[in-house]
Design goal:
This protein is an alpha+beta fold. About 25% of the residues lie in helices and about 30% in strands. Keywords: Acyltransferase, Transferase.
Length: about 200
């Protein structure tokens, strides 16, 4: 019996780095890799520190059943390097904090530690450019919204370097449902329009 072929939703060359491919997260198969990333102190703003491998798998299995929120594993030449999550802002708590426009898409990004290749200047910018290409062009969206924790200065600086326009600081309300618990979060909104990322 052979494994089913991997379905990549996007593939793009990142100049000087290699081929980036994006595929849906396999909650069970990818759980160990994801748990290693989200449980690290450097990922504290991701909000999953302290969870077990199985709890991480459960969260991504739950997300896989949603029509409005999607999780993707990002690979560079076959090696996992990031998690990209997309969501419909109108179906997310962020909609309570800003005026959603038609064509908006929300994004969360978690980059993996540098790994064996070591840190490489320009890598995060190259990866973010691939993400912008996938969500704005590949999914035909007009604007990306991000909502990093206001204390996550590194993430915000990365978004600004990519051309994101800084928006307001907002308080995302707590979500307490049987399947999902998200604590209240003070976030810095930022936006990237397609015409800024890809000028005609």
């Amino acid at each position: 019996m052979t494994d089913a072929p991997v379905h990549y939703v996007h593939e793009e060359k990142a100049d000087g780095f290699g081929t980036v491919r994006i595929r849906p997260v396999d909650a069970e198969a990818d759980a160990a890799v994801l748990h290693g990333w989200v449980s690290a102190e450097r990922a504290s703003f991701w909000g999953m520190n302290g969870l077990t491998r199985d709890q991480v798998a459960e969260i991504y299995a739950h997300m896989a059943g949603l029509d409005t929120h999607h999780a993707y594993l990002v690979e560079l030449d076959g090696d996992p390097v990031a998690v990209l999550q997309t969501y419909e802002p109108s179906e997310d708590r962020v909609s309570e904090c800003y005026e959603v426009e038609p064509g908006d898409i929300g994004v969360h990004v978690l980059l993996a530690p540098a790994g064996e290749r070591g840190a490489r200047p320009g890598w995060s910018s190259a990866l973010m450019a691939v993400f912008a290409s996938y969500v704005l062009v590949g999914q035909d969206r007009r604007r990306v919204v991000v909502d990093p924790d206001v204390r996550n200065e590194k993430a915000l600086a990365r978004f600004v370097r990519q051309g994101f326009e800084v928006g307001p600081v907002v308080t995302l309300p707590e979500i307490d449902l049987p399947d999902v618990h998200l604590p209240e979060k003070t976030a810095q909104l930022a936006f990237l329009r397609r015409e800024v990322a890809f000028p005609a």
